TrEMBL record:
Pfam families assigned: Oxidored_molyb
Region ranges (Disordered): 29-48
Protein name per the record: Sulfite oxidase-like oxidoreductase
InterPro entries, per the entry: OxRdtase_Mopterin-bd_dom, OxRdtase_Mopterin-bd_sf
Organism: Mucilaginibacter pankratovii
Parts forming coiled coils: none
Domain Oxidoreductase molybdopterin-binding per the UniProt entry, residue ranges: 70-212
Length: 231
């Protein structure tokens, strides 16, 4: 199969996945809530740009587990497996050959800072899912970082078009301290749902808690519901 065929397949599969999750995505709180909590002008989903309890920052703080793994590009791999028909292990070149998406989105950290209008470039999780073909029974993903971090997401959150695996911020390679060479971003959920230094995405047929979710943070993490901790 040549490169053009490969890309066409991904695009076709992306459309099918989109159709499969469209209704569920429309019902998620960061799109559907009719009285979202927050302030400021409305974002593209009709939510106030500053969620309740958040303050806008210009600086970009760093949060990690006390260890920042350094992964040379020739050693970097991304494994996508679990409840999928076509598991893959991508090299850097494989990853960069996938359709590239540019987006501007906001970043809401549960420690109460929000950084707005961040310029990203990367590969959408939707396109990565289109590559591996999640099984009909798949409902969640668990993402793994090179630093042993994990975090879980439902597929209706993970397959939103603004959920990206980014390698570029503001036109520059993503800094190691912020999760470079590649991290995930989840603009419609608190930022801990986006694994820095991402190395594996496992599709699951049932929910499984990640590192912070297991330690009292919310499973769902909806910023406009102040949904920070599990009950
Ligand atoms: N692999 C990994 N990903 C992670 C974390 C981490 O410690 N390890 N911290 C999370 C938290 S709590 C937040 S708020 C964001 C912080 O991203 P930043 O350091 O680029 O601001 O990354 C999230 N992803
Ligand atoms: Mo965080």
């Amino acid at each position: 199969m040549d490169e053009a065929d490969k890309l066409n397949r991904i695009i076709e599969s992306r459309m099918k996945l989109k159709a499969r999750f469209e209704e569920k995505i429309k019902l998620t709180p960061s799109v559907a809530d009719d009285s979202p909590k927050g302030s400021g002008k409305l974002n593209r989903h009709g939510m106030p740009s500053i969620p309740i309890g958040q303050t806008a920052t210009v600086k970009w703080p760093v949060l990690d587990l006390g260890y920042q793994p350094s992964i040379p590009l020739d050693k970097w791999r991304l494994t996508i497996d679990g409840a999928v028909d076509n598991p893959v292990r991508l090299s850097w070149n494989d990853f960069m050959a996938l359709p590239q998406t540019k987006d501007t989105s906001d970043f809401h950290c549960v420690t109460t800072w929000s950084k707005l209008d961040m310029h990203w470039k990367g590969v959408s999780l939707l396109d990565l899912a289109a590559l591996v073909h999640p099984k009909e029974t798949a409902t969640h993903v668990l993402c793994y970082g090179y630093d042993t971090y994990t975090t879980n997401l439902s597929l209706e959150e993970a397959l939103k078009p603004d959920v990206l695996l980014v390698h570029t911020f503001d036109g520059q390679p993503l800094q190691i301290e912020h999760g470079g060479p590649v991290r995930m971003i989840t603009p419609q959920l608190y930022a801990w749902k986006g694994s820095k230094w991402i190395k594996r995405i496992e599709f699951l047929t049932e929910n499984k808690l990640g590192f912070w979710e297991d330690r009292g943070y919310s499973n769902t993490a909806y910023p406009w519901r102040n949904d920070r901790y599990s009950d």
